[in-house]
Design goal:
- The protein has 128 residues and is mainly beta.
- The protein has a single domain, classed as Sandwich (Immunoglobulin-like), CATH 2.60.40.
- The chain has two helices and eight strands; from the N terminus they run ααββββββββ.
- Strands 3, 4, 6, 7 and 8 form a five-stranded antiparallel β-sheet that branches.
- The termini are far apart.
């Protein structure tokens, strides 16, 4: 009977990321800074600085999104590899069309384990 209890404890620790902390210990991806600029054709370009304790392919920040105030995804930058040795890191996303009437957007990062991060960054759109 004790063996079953030990197995259950080990299983719970695995799920919580306590035995192999490389996967869960990195936490969620966060946007620590973001900027927007308007191009000549009316589209916007965004620069996002993302922080995440990437631990290799098994747990890394895998994208950031530009969202309308009501949560609609307006643009996505897919991040194709871990950034273990570059933290935080900054990437760009261009040619994002923002509907009329929107004066600010939210930038949110994701990681491949926890999905959407909680620390977002609100950006006021220049010219709006």
């Amino acid at each position: 009977m004790k063996r079953i209890g030990t197995f259950a404890t080990l299983a719970a620790a695995l799920v919580a990321g306590l035995v192999w902390p490389g996967t869960a210990a990195a936490g969620k991806a966060s946007v620590v800074k973001a900027t927007a600029s308007r191009s000549g054709d009316g589209a916007y370009s965004f620069t996002a600085t993302v922080a995440h304790a990437d631990s290799g392919w098994e747990h890394y920040a895998d994208k950031f999104e530009v969202l309308s105030p009501d949560g609609k995804v307006l643009g996505t930058r897919v991040l194709l590899h871990p950034h273990e040795n570059e933290q935080p890191f900054t990437r760009d996303l261009g040619n994002v069309r923002i509907p009329a009437g929107i004066t600010s957007v939210v930038v949110r990062a994701w990681d491949n384990v926890h999905k959407a991060g909680e620390q977002t960054f609100t950006v006021k759109l220049p010219g709006r």
